[in-house]
Amino acid sequence: MAKHVKLRTPLAKLFWMGREELNHEHRNIYYRLYTKEGRLESNNPIFSNDRFISHILSKSVRPPHTAASLKRYVCKIEGMEGSGKGAFKYLLLSEKKPLDDSARLALRENSGPGSSEVDPVVLVVDKGPAAEKKLKSASNAGSNRLSVWKIEQCFVHYRLYDDDGKAVSKMSFDESNSSLGRIDIFTIPPPQTVASLKDHLAHVEGVSGHHVQLLENEDGEVTLSDGDAIALLTDDFPGSKEGQPIVFTYAQSASDKMENPSFSKRLTGISNWAGATVDATWHSIVIGEIFQTDGLHEIKPFQSGSHRYVDFPCYVRINSSGNKACTLTDQK
């Protein structure tokens, strides 16, 4: 049975909330994968509504248990052999510095690294070919067989501005307030600083390479510094409340000013579909997933390699990871 955990409880109390103490020597090690731009879907998800977290048994990791041996095994089962060499590993999402490869890990102790879903170890890999392949092949295959993680979803709320004023956010969730966006706190890679939040927002809003700034609130008097830590696993951080968003600004380029605002409509998945496992130009869909679209109907082929199955009516949409692909029009 899925556990109902609220992130707004202090982290120290979450380690054992609703959990029975394990009596055997080996335990699960929970982990998440990221690039510097955002999270990667696991090949072995454990929840239908969060396919970015997984776990392994501690006995799977070759002794001696070091950061390097854990990285190698996780990269192996995630199909990213070779990516571990340049990867950074964090014991907590909130840590500012990665571990040295030689660091010893207490993987057979109940309270050690990755002992909880809300306290996973984190692996940040280079955005090389292996990571790109994972981004394109993400799917919801097997979602119906997975349990639901009943966790209170927490967001960073922000208002988007360009040079001329408010802009339409690709992460908008209210049609009457289109400049207000939000992102799940677990989409932000460590170290959880202003710099990593800025980089992720620039990615999902499609303004990477632009001059961007984060302001503490809508008064705009305080600019957040890149090195400042953001305590995303606490009850109070900048942008934690919908009514008190941070401000994200970006400078427009000449080409931006020639384009009309797009992808301002919000659609929500009403069915599960694993389209990306067959054709990477299509999104897979999970019930409840939010997409942004321009609302224009198109006809696109659904195919695998040289084999063309059928042409489908579709929208071009952007998902919560900032990736653009096609989806079926039967979503609301």
Structure report:
The protein has three domains: 4-150, Ubiquitin-like (UB roll) (Roll), CATH 3.10.20.90; 153-258, Phosphatidylinositol 3-kinase Catalytic Subunit, Chain A, domain 1 (Ubiquitin-like (UB roll)); 265-328, no CATH class. Helix content is 12%, strand content 24%. The chain has helices at 11-14, 67-77, 129-137, 194-204, 254-258, and strands at 4-5, 28-34, 39-40, 53-57, 88-90, 121-124, 150-151, 155-162, 165-166, 180-184, 212-215, 246-250, 265-268, 290-293, 298-304, 307-318, 324-328. Strands 2, 3, 4, 5 and 6 form a five-stranded mixed sheet that branches. Strands 8, 9, 10, 11 and 12 form a five-stranded mixed sheet that branches. A hairpin with a 2-residue loop joins strand 15 (298-304) and strand 16.
